[in-house]
Every structure is written in structure tokens, then in C-alpha cells.
């Protein structure tokens, strides 16, 4: 069984923080690394009616609320559209995050997708005291301030904020179950969305992008650059307290575990890596061909609730044929990417015929 925190660098061993401090930090960090959708399992999900989130002109309305250290949502409204900057920089960072994600949505869907409005631009900041996590609660995203030891404020990473808002979009456009491979696919799609928002806002093409999720979240006490790496899963951090990034980028390293809803944040590295390989093989801006193909599949293919990686791979290949024709360079690059990570498209898998 894989354990994110234990192992050679288990809390309480070696030099550095004392045993109790290590245990405390490790426990908090473990929560963050695994449970960004925790609330989804604790409350009935009611799909948000997108019409409730539009102003009379049909624009999505971004709203940032402040929980003032309580563990309640949404809190009091701190900034919404057409208002000046707030005094609180976390409020402003969260607000800019909502604006960036909305701008990317318009670019990605060319504002033509009827499901594009599945995005919900609602955020609560200052949730809890030194709360070291961020999550999508089924209706909005929620961010803590971090403990200052392992984590900075969760408003410090655009890819992380966009990941959580991506969960909102996916909740309103798919029915993927949040466990096993369908859950890992859900996490990967949220990572792809998060990475693409950051690349779009920074004007980075596929070759120059970092492909990191959560860059800036770790304090400088942590030996690591981000929560996850899409380019090289398993290399985002290697720290005496946190241990080593446990993600694999290929099916040969697939983690079979009962924890983390069956490894949804662990095995998401596999489709993440396939997307990175596909986008970098195509070159140019990752959101244009690769990203639009991925989210066309999400919006049009009615992925079954129990979709596994092979099901998704097959749908992406069918979409590539529809968009670019059979035998196109795009289709070949995509087939090579799935092959490189060891995912067999469903129709080609002899075990399923
Ligand atoms: Zn997530």
C-alpha cells in the first residue's frame, strides 16, 4: 500500500523538526495533497443552475466572499463585478483568479458552448484559521490561508484556483464518479484546465510552460516546486517531511490503493502526462488544439460515469478524427501520447472485445 507521508522520510525520523511537529505538519499536508474534493462526499450535490450566476447582460458574475476565519461558506461578499480593488490582497488575488478563468473559458469554448456557462465564479477566502487546504464544495471554491510552514495562502497559485473551478465546470458537464480511474480522470481534467488557464494568462506555449500545478503554494521551507508536475509526474517535491511526490506518469506505475478514493490524485498523473506529451508534440499553444480537443470530448461525448482511461483515450481519438480527419498528424501524435503512457484505447483493447 502506498502512503504519501510515511516511508524512509517518515515523521519522527532524522534531523529537523521534532517528532510531534513533523506528525502535525505531515497530517495537514496529507489532507491537502489528497482531499481537495472532500466536501463533495459530505453533502448532496445540487447542480448549480447557470442562469442564477448571470447578470441581466448574460455575463457570468464573479463573487469573492470572506469567511473571516470561520469554517462556514460563503461568508460575506468582499468583491464582485464592477467594484474597485479590496484592501485585502487575498480577496483581490481570488477575484483576479476568477476573471482569468472566465477569460480562458471564453477563449476555450469560443463562447459558443451551451455548457460553457457550467463554470461557477464563486470563491471564499480566509476559510478557517491557518487552514491548509482548498476545495470545491459542490457550489463554489473555498480557500484557506495555509499554515505558513508548509503552505502559503491558497490564493497564491492560479493553476490551483483554476483546478478547483475546473471541478465546478466538470460537475456541470460530466457525471464522472469520483473514485478509481473515473475519479483520476476527473482530477486530471481539472489539472489540465488549471494548467491551461495559467499558460493562457502568461502567454506561454506548450514548450515554455512549467506544466506545474500549485506552483507557489509551498513555503520556502519545503523542498519542492509544486503539488504536481504534468510534464514529469513524481518530481514535484521530495521533502524530508512530505516525502516524495508519489505520482506516476505511466500505467506501469499505476497505484492500486483504497486510499484517496482509489488513488484519484495519484493516478491522475497518467492522463496528465499523456496530455502534456500530446500538446508538446503538436507545439504552439496547448489550449488551442490539444485543450480544445480535450474539452470538446468533455462537452460532447457523454462520458459514462465509470469511464476509465481507455474509454477517454478512445473518445479523444474519435474526436481527433472528427476534427482533423483520419490519419492526421494530430491523431498520430495523440495515439503516440496514449501509447507512451501505456493507456490502451478501449476499442483496441483485446481484453475488452
Ligand atoms: Zn481536484
UniProtKB/TrEMBL annotation:
Stated name of the protein: Neutral metalloproteinase
UniProt record similarity statement: Belongs to the peptidase M4 family.
Function according to Swiss-Prot or TrEMBL: Extracellular zinc metalloprotease.
Cofactor(s) named in the record: Zn(2+)
Domain of life: Bacteria
The Peptidase M4 domain, residue ranges: 75-170
Primary location class: secreted
Originating species: Paeniglutamicibacter antarcticus
Residue ranges, annotated region (Disordered): 1-22, 65-87
Coiled-coil residue windows: none
Keywords assigned by UniProt, alphabetized: Hydrolase, Metal-binding, Metalloprotease, Protease, Secreted, Zinc
Gene3D superfamilies noted in UniProt: 3.10.170.10, Neutral Protease Domain 2
InterPro entries: Metalloprotease_M4, Peptidase_M4, Peptidase_M4/M1_CTD_sf, Peptidase_M4_C_domain, Peptidase_M4_domain
First-level EC class: hydrolase
Lineage start: Bacteria, Bacillati, Actinomycetota, Actinomycetes, Micrococcales
Amino acid at each position: 500500500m502506498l502512503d504519501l507521508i510515511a516511508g524512509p522520510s517518515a515523521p519522527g525520523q532524522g534531523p529537523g523538526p521534532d517528532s510531534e511537529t513533523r506528525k502535525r505538519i505531515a497530517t495537514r499536508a496529507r489532507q491537502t495533497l489528497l482531499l481537495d474534493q472532500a466536501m463533495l462526499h459530505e453533502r448532496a450535490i445540487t447542480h448549480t443552475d447557470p442562469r442564477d450566476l448571470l447578470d441581466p447582460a448574460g455575463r457570468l458574475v464573479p463573487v469573492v466572499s470572506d469567511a473571516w476565519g470561520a469554517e462556514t461558506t460563503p461568508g460575506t461578499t468582499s468583491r464582485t463585478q464592477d467594484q474597485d480593488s479590496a484592501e485585502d490582497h487575498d480577496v483581490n488575488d481570488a477575484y483576479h483568479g476568477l476573471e482569468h478563468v472566465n477569460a480562458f473559458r471564453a477563449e476555450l469554448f469560443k463562447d459558443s458552448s451551451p455548457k460553457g456557462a457550467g463554470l461557477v465564479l464563486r470563491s471564499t477566502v480566509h476559510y478557517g484559521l491557518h487552514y491548509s487546504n482548498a476545495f470545491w464544495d459542490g457550489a463554489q471554491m473555498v480557500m484557506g490561508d495555509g499554515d505558513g510552514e508548509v503552505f502559503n495562502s491558497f490564493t497564491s497559485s492560479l493553476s490551483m484556483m483554476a483546478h478547483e473551478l475546473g471541478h465546478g465546470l466538470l460537475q456541470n458537464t460530466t457525471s464522472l464518479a469520483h473514485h478509481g480511474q473515473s475519479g483520476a480522470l476527473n482530477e486530471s481534467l481539472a489539472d489540465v484546465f488549471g494548467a491551461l488557464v495559467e499558460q493562457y494568462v502568461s502567454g506561454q506555449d506548450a514548450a515554455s510552460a512549467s506544466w506545474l500545478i500549485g506552483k507557489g503554494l509551498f513555503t520556502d521551507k519545503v523542498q519542492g516546486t509544486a503539488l504536481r508536475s504534468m510534464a514529469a509526474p513524481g518530481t514535484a517535491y521530495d521533502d524530508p517531511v512530505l516525502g516524495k511526490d508519489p505520482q506516476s506518469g505511466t500505467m506501469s506505475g499505476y497505484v492500486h490503493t483504497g486510499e484517496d478514493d482509489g488513488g484519484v490524485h495519484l493516478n491522475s498523473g497518467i492522463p496528465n502526462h499523456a496530455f502534456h506529451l500530446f500538446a508538446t508534440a503538436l507545439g504552439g499553444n496547448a489550449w488551442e488544439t490539444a485543450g480544445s480537443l480535450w474539452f470538446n470530448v468533455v462537452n460532447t461525448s457523454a462520458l459514462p460515469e465509470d469511464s476509465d482511461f481507455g474509454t477517454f483515450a478512445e473518445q479523444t481519438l474519435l474526436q481527433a478524427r472528427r476534427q482533423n480527419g483520419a490519419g492526421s498528424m494530430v491523431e498520430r501524435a495523440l495515439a503516440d501520447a496514449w501509447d507512451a503512457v501505456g493507456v490502451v484505447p478501449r476499442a483496441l483493447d483485446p481484453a475488452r472485445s
